[in-house]
């Protein structure tokens, strides 16, 4: 590659502003990839937990079912099951005070919804970084390009002539900033969209699990959707 082009040449010949823009874009790229990798691994883990959550209902009692979800406190399905159990127990123990204001169905619904909302907030952590990088990186790169072209034109004006060998290098270096901005923004946008789809899948599974838990704690059985609605009993333990 011609020595007039490339990030190293931009860095060596650029001024403070050009270097600051390049460092900012590189930092944004690193932040984006860190978020993408961490959140992608989280989604893969949550999908695996969602698949294993079906084993919860193939148990003789609630205690056995809870053990099948493991001991990991970060497991949203286990946390939701515990939230539902605690809400049901709390309602039974304080029924004399709560039954006039809130029935057991509404109380458990509220507890499960709070659990889902807390997990949703945790699941969406980091997406704001990707959205910000995807929307601002092209403009930051464009600013670096404009700044580089300005200084290139100033140099040409000082030299008094504009030959190809004098124009190609500085303009090419300036355009590299645009390419760098796009190289930072595109993975951030694609990663954001992929993570949003993954989060939606996990939340759909979690909401379905919460629906089954609600039916279990209110009626004592899990409702399954089919041609005819059936219930799967699970002993309380």
From TrEMBL:
Limits of the MotA/TolQ/ExbB proton channel domain: 100-201
Keywords from the UniProt entry: Cell inner membrane, Cell membrane, Membrane, Protein transport, Transmembrane, Transmembrane helix, Transport
InterPro entries: ExbB/TolQ_transport (IPR050790), MotA_ExbB_proton_chnl (IPR002898)
Any one Pfam family match given in the protein's UniProt record, by short name: MotA_ExbB
Membrane topology: Multi-pass membrane protein
Subcellular location: Cell inner membrane; Membrane
Organism domain of life: Bacteria
Transmembrane spans: 20-41, 127-150, 174-195
This protein's record includes keyword Ribonucleoprotein: no
Cell inner membrane as UniProt keyword: yes
Family from the record: Belongs to the exbB/tolQ family.
Assembly behavior: The accessory proteins ExbB and ExbD seem to form a complex with TonB.
General function of this protein: Involved in the TonB-dependent energy-dependent transport of various receptor-bound substrates. Protects ExbD from proteolytic degradation and functionally stabilizes TonB.
Protein name: Biopolymer transport protein ExbB
Organism: Variovorax soli
């Amino acid at each position: 590659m011609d020595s007039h082009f490339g990030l190293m040449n931009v860095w060596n010949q650029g001024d403070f502003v050009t270097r600051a823009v390049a460092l900012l874009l590189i930092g944004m790229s690193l932040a984006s990839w860190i978020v993408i990798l961490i959140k992608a691994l989280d989604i893969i883990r949550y999908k695996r937990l969602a698949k294993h959550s079906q084993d919860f209902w193939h148990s003789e009692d609630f205690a056995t079912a809870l053990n099948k979800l493991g001991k990991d406190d970060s497991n949203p399905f286990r946390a939701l099951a515990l939230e539902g159990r605690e809400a049901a127990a709390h309602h039974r123990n304080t029924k004399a005070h709560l039954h006039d204001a809130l029935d057991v169905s509404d109380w458990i619904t509220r507890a499960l919804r709070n659990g889902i909302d807390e997990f949703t907030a945790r699941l969406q952590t980091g997406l704001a970084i990707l959205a910000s990088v995807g929307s601002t990186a092209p403009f930051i790169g464009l600013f670096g390009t404009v700044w580089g072209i300005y200084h290139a034109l100033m140099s040409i004006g000082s030299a008094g002539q504009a030959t190809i060998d004098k124009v190609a290098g500085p303009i090419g270096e300036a355009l590299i900033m645009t390419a760098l901005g796009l190289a930072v923004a595109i993975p951030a946008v694609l990663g954001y969209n992929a993570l949003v789809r993954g989060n939606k899948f996990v939340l759909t599974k979690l909401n379905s699990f919460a629906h089954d838990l609600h039916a279990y704690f209110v009626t004592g059985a899990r409702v399954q959707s089919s041609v005819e609605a059936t219930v799967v009993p699970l002993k309380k333990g």
